[in-house]
Specification:
Largest sheet: 3 strands, antiparallel
Low-confidence stretches: 14-34
Shape: elongated
Distance between the termini: 144 Å
Structural class: alpha+beta
Order of helices and strands: HHHEEEEEE
Length: 194
């Protein structure tokens, strides 16, 4: 019985206190809500400003990167165009010595056939040296098997040689590194008709 009496007194104590707390809590909560709303708004505004600043910085960095990329692309195009235009610069410079030798040979007034021949041989050696320096190889397939990738057959001739053998080189070919820049013009053997 004492227990039930204690419970009733507790309940009585709770009820008025609970109402007071609710009323007081509501008014305090309302006050806090207003204060919280005022505090939240500046917080959001501040965050928005910071986000806008960061966005502007990122946009500026993107614009700079885009401009730099465009400059690199233009510079690369200019470099490629120059490389194509002046690719043979070193080769042409080396050929000038050959031209000088030819001009010197033509400038001689009283030359003999022998001296002219010697001059031509020296000039040819200069030209061969330039070709070697720039990996220009001579294709001279005399007696070799015909290769359509390196040779151009001008005619076929009956021969004792095995069929498809180069019997005569009419004009030498040339290759730059591994690429044929001019095929050799050749005559190719065929079996004798009986």
């Amino acid at each position: 019985m004492q227990e039930s009496h204690n419970q009733e007194s507790i309940e009585e104590q709770k009820l008025p206190g609970a109402d007071d707390v609710l009323t007081t809590g509501y008014s305090d909560t309302a006050g806090h809500t207003e204060n919280a709303g005022e505090e939240v708004v500046p917080d959001l505004e501040q965050q928005l400003k910071e986000a806008e600043i960061r966005a502007a910085e990122h946009h500026d960095a993107w614009l700079r990167a885009r401009a730099e990329n465009e400059n690199i692309r233009k510079r690369a195009q200019t470099d490629i165009a120059s490389a194509h235009k002046y690719a043979i610069d070193n080769f042409a410079t080396q050929l000038l010595a050959v031209m000088d030798s030819l001009d010197a040979a033509l400038a001689v007034e009283n030359c003999t056939v022998e001296s002219l021949k010697d001059g031509v041989e020296l000039t040819r050696k200069q030209l061969v040296a330039v070709f070697e320096k720039f990996n220009i190889g001579i294709i001279n397939p005399q007696g070799e098997k015909f290769d359509p990738h390196q040779h151009e057959a001008m005619c076929t001739v009956e021969s004792d040689l095995p069929p498809n053998t180069v019997t005569q080189v009419m004009q030498k070919g040339y290759a730059l590194h591994d690429r044929v820049i001019r095929p050799a013009m050749v005559a190719v053997s065929k079996a004798k008709s009986t």
